[in-house]
UniProtKB/TrEMBL annotation:
Known EC number: 2.7.4.9
CDD domains in the record: TMPK
Keywords noted in UniProt: ATP-binding, Kinase, Nucleotide biosynthesis, Nucleotide-binding, Transferase
Record's protein name: Thymidylate kinase
Annotated signal peptide: none
Domain of life: Bacteria
One GO biological process term: dTDP biosynthetic process
InterPro entries: P-loop_NTPase, Thymidylate_kin-like_dom, Thymidylate_kinase
Positions annotated to bind ATP: 16-23
Xref: HAMAP family: Thymidylate_kinase (MF_00165)
Annotated GO CC locations: cytosol
Classification via PANTHER family: THYMIDYLATE KINASE, UMP-CMP KINASE 2, MITOCHONDRIAL
Organism: Massilia cellulosiltytica
Molecular function per GO: ATP binding; dTMP kinase activity
Length: 208
């Protein structure tokens, strides 16, 4: 029998274009879940393991072929799924990941134009039986994200991309949300932080 009952943890991922506000809200979701008595593991991609963090540093700062970039994202993910995500879910913890495979479809697929079939093949290879139980997609127009980013930090390779790149990334995220049968919940992140928190609480209600 699959471990689908109360003993299994859950896997929640956070997605959105750079500057949408997802990192800001992971702490809030952690506190909601802990308040409901869950054990929470907070992690991120690319990264989440010692090797994955080295790969993150490479992929966020070095120029490389588009397919190399996609392969590094999935190499980091392979390590992350094996070492962190699957063991945590199996012991009943709730895993919150700042990005997962939807980001590869949005950035390498939508943004850079990599053939979706290649990404689907990598997904089948790296995590054939694992999908997020819930994905929170923080959605904002590009100009809002850009203004938030430039106010907040030094930009990496992806964050320096042009508006048309982010338009394609956002479009692919929204397309996947519409096709996801409710797995991906779109959060309007143009609202105030208090309003976004209320939307997150509503999205998580049935999970608490
Ligand atoms: N709802 C919001 N209203 C105003 N500013 C926000 C909101 N959400 C996030 N921010 C700010 O925008 C910036 C980028 O947010 P961050 O969470 O780091 O984005 P992401 O992780 O999606 O790239 C931060 O300075 C953050 O404080
Ligand atoms: C997981 C993943 C991330 N990315 C990109 C999206 C982001 O621009 C970047 C790093 O993500 P993120 O951790 O959100 O950056 P920050 O800490 O600066 O908020 O990696 C991909 O292109 N493909 C992927 O599969």
């Amino acid at each position: 029998m699959n471990q689908t009952d109360a003993t299994r943890g859950r896997f929640i991922t956070f997605e959105g274009i750079d500057g949408a506000g997802k990192s800001t809200h992971i702490g809030y979701v952690t506190s909601l879940l802990k308040g409901a008595g869950k054990r929470v593991v907070s992690t991120r991609e690319p990264g989440g393991t010692p090797l994955g963090e080295k790969l993150r540093d490479l992929v966020l700062h070095e120029k490389m072929h588009l397919e190399t970039e996609a392969l590094i994202m999935f190499a980091s993910r392979r390590e992350h799924v094996a070492q962190v995500v699957e063991p945590a879910i199996a012991r009943g913890d709730w895993v919150l990941s700042d990005r997962f495979t939807d980001a590869s479809f949005a950035y390498q697929g939508g943004g850079r134009g990599l053939d979706r079939a290649k990404l689907e093949a990598l997904e089948q290879w790296v995590h054939p039986h694992l999908q997020p139980d819930l994905t929170l997609l923080f959605d904002v127009p590009l100009d809002v994200a850009k203004a938030r980013l430039s106010a907040s930090r030094t930009l990496d390779k992806f964050e320096m991309e042009q508006a048309d790149f982010f338009a394609r990334v956002r479009g692919e995220y929204l397309r996947r949300a519409a096709a996801s049968n409710g797995r991906i919940v779109v959060i309007d992140s143009t609202k105030t932080i208090a309003e976004v928190r209320a939307a997150l609480q509503a999205a998580l209600e049935t999970w608490l």
